[in-house]
Amino acid sequence: MEKFSLDATAREQLRAAQAADSGRSATTLVGGHERILRQTVVAMTAGTAQSEHETAAGEATVLVRSGRVRLDADGHVWEGRDGDLLVMPVGAHTMEALEDSVFLLTVAMR
User: Which regions of 1-81 does DSSP assign to beta strands (E)?
Assistant: First the structure.
């Protein structure tokens, strides 16, 4: 069994994102390419956006730990803030941090 502090990891990733030219930082806590389940803590500074990309071949959710994000997929827009769980639609999408934000991305590969 392993144990992680999401609060500590979120703080670390946000500090790293604030120091990065890209305004982003991420670390995978559980899983990886060889596993079905992958959980990654992602931090983005305000105004930072991930360019349009495809959802991985599987199901995914975003649990907003802090801040406020905007998910835009196929002409539909959802905003999430502290504690919100967004279910990622399949297909192309963008993610933008409206405030300094940290979220837990969970992907279950098919």
Answer: 24-30, 37-44, 49-54, 58-66, 68-73, 76-81
